[in-house]
Specification:
It contains 3 helices and 10 strands. It is an alpha/beta fold. The protein starts with a strand and ends with a strand.
């Protein structure tokens, strides 16, 4: 068994700061007043099977739509499964379109991760977040080392957040490869 650490390094002198720093997970309460916070999710939601979809060929500022997701699934020889995590390997500032988020929600994934600051890039409306979080699909951002994972194989994702009464929490994300 091989472990790959997917967490951005963070070395605070004091543990103060923005919860969106480094690798973190967003829960529905991030955007919705009555949404669940991290500590309201069962631990199993953070220990999942995962598939990685490769979009490293895109240019910064481009967006991923539903057709791109289908093509990436086909290229990897994978079909996304219900409740698994889907991890998007992208260059910086590539964002997920609303219809792509709707596609992932339709597929029934439980978590969407990305090796970028946000699945919405610089979008202020946060459409992808809104679609996913409204259906209790967690959002994991700020991943690293995705290029070390074979995009044609599933792996086990461990993304344990601190148990905080919060909508956004730093995590230690690890890919477990057989």
């Amino acid at each position: 068994m091989r472990f790959i650490d997917l967490t951005t390094e963070f070395s605070p002198e004091q543990f103060l700061g923005n919860s969106h720093s480094g690798t973190h997970i967003d829960a529905p309460a991030y955007l919705f007043r009555d949404g669940k916070k991290i500590d309201e999710f069962k631990l199993e939601r953070f220990l999942t099977d995962a598939a990685i979809l490769d979009f490293a060929h895109l240019k910064p500022g481009q967006q991923i739509d539903d057709e791109d997701l289908e093509a990436a699934e086909e290229a990897a020889g994978l079909a996304l499964r219900e409740r698994e995590s889907v991890i998007l390997h992208v260059p910086s500032e590539v964002r997920l379109s609303r219809n792509a988020a709707e596609y992932l929600e339709f597929k029934g994934v439980g978590l969407v991760g990305i090796d970028s600051v946000s699945i919405d890039g610089g979008e202020s409306e946060m459409e992808a977040h809104r679609v996913l979080l409204s259906k209790d699909v967690l959002v994991l951002e700020g991943l690293i080392n995705l290029d070390l994972i074979d995009a044609s194989r599933r792996f086990r994702l461990v993304s344990l957040p601190l148990k905080l009464d919060s909508a956004v929490v730093p995590v230690r994300a690890v890919a477990v490869l057989e």
